[in-house]
Design a protein that fits this description.
Blueprint (H helix, E strand, L loop, with lengths): L6 E15 L9 E3 L14 E4 L1 E5 L2 E3 L5 E4 L2 E5 L2 E5 L2 E5 L9 E8 L4 E5 L23 E9 L12 E2 L14 E4 L4 E4 L15 E12 L3 E5 L2 E10 L4 E10 L1 E7 L6 H4 L4 E7 L7 E13 L6 E9 L4 E3 L2
Antiparallel strand pairs: 1-16, 1-21, 2-15, 3-16, 4-7, 5-6, 6-9, 7-8, 10-11, 10-12, 12-13, 14-15, 17-20, 18-19, 20-23, 21-22, 22-23, 22-24
């Protein structure tokens, strides 16, 4: 197969998407997708991910009087928005009326309202959401700040030992589980599954703003070389044998392009930027390479010859090969 119909394109612009909810189509509560591949990494367009949860503050302490707690000021992400919530001096909690044990979840909604959601009373504490003696399911669109676990139906002050704020068990944090952005696939992967503690046994909301690239042709480009993982080995001789060790290395993607003057050319104007590149060995077929990295160029001005830029795509990881 020849490359007479080859096409190299690069990210010449961006199409921005506002903060939007990501979906967990697999149901694993760990991989959240946007439905849009190739999140741009260009300056000013890099993705912003906001998992629902507390950013800072929100310490819960006993309030004065009976059956109430105080919540310190805090910042949080809720439904993709960053909230700065003032301290609450007194949030009323509910005790069991017939049985003895009741768990209250202290929650905050997208409007910044801090309230207590009562669980189902029981004769002992359990960890199952919605069960008798267990914590309640949290309303969708709210975050859990902590839990108040009361083992008596008699009114009285809340003790500090009855307040629980362990991250990822009693309190939702924006920073944990740890999110990792997968820009090529337009997704966010968490270090562990998000707890399914919201109504309908669903995880908390995960939101992101991002931009997708608009590709333009790299005119007069040639000699594209994709990024590749290379392997090398070295040996060491001991008194009894020769031992071999292997290592891997990642080579950058490269290409060359003929320039008009090397100054006004579009490809010259985007050097130093973190961009996507797309190469089709045959532009009439869907198979292609996707590379993403910082573009560096080396221009040469030979006497009596074409002005040429030797271009390097300085990648963070091996490019993606799309074989539809």
């Amino acid at each position: 197969m020849s490359t007479d119909n080859a096409l190299l394109e690069f990210e010449g612009g961006q199409n921005a998407f506002p903060m939007t909810a990501l979906t967990n189509d697999s149901g694993d509560a760990q991989l959240f997708e946007s439905g849009e591949e190739l999140w741009s990494q260009a300056a000013g367009f890099a993705p912003v991910v906001r998992p629902d949860g507390v950013i800072t503050g929100a310490a819960i302490t006993p309030a004065s009087g009976n059956d109430a707690v105080a919540v310190a000021a805090f910042t949080a992400f809720v439904s993709g928005q960053e909230l700065a919530v003032a301290a609450e001096a007194s949030v009323a909690v509910t005790r069991a009326g017939t049985d003895t044990h009741m768990i209250n979840s202290i929650v905050c909604n997208a409007a910044g309202d801090v309230t207590a959601v009562a669980g189902t009373e029981g004769t002992s504490f359990v960890e199952t959401r919605g069960a008798a003696g267990g914590p309640p399911l949290i309303p969708v669109g709210s975050i859990e700040l902590g839990q108040v676990r009361l083992s008596s139906g008699t009114a009285g002050p809340v003790a500090q030992g009855e307040i629980f704020q362990l991250v990822n068990r009693h309190k939702e944090s924006a920073a944990f589980p740890i999110p990792t952005i997968d820009p090529i696939n337009g997704a966010v992967q968490f270090s562990s599954p998000l707890p399914k503690i919201h109504t309908g046994e669903t995880p908390k909301g995960v939101f992101a703003s991002f931009a997708t690239p608009e590709f333009i042709e790299a005119f007069d480009a040639y000699d594209f070389v994709p990024s590749e993982v290379g392997y090398s080995s070295s040996s060491k001789q001991t008194y009894t044998r020769v031992k071999n060790t292997r290592s891997q290395s990642l080579n950058n993607a490269t290409f060359s392009v003929d320039l008009t003057d090397g100054i006004s050319d579009t490809i010259a104007s985007v050097q130093g930027q973190n961009l996507y590149f797309r190469f089709y060995p045959d532009k009439t077929r869907p198979q292609h390479f996707i590379e993403q990295g910082v573009l560096s160029i080396a221009r040469t001005y030979p006497a009596g010859g074409d002005i040429v830029a030797a271009c390097t795509i300085n990648v963070d990881e091996k490019g993606k090969e799309v074989a539809l």
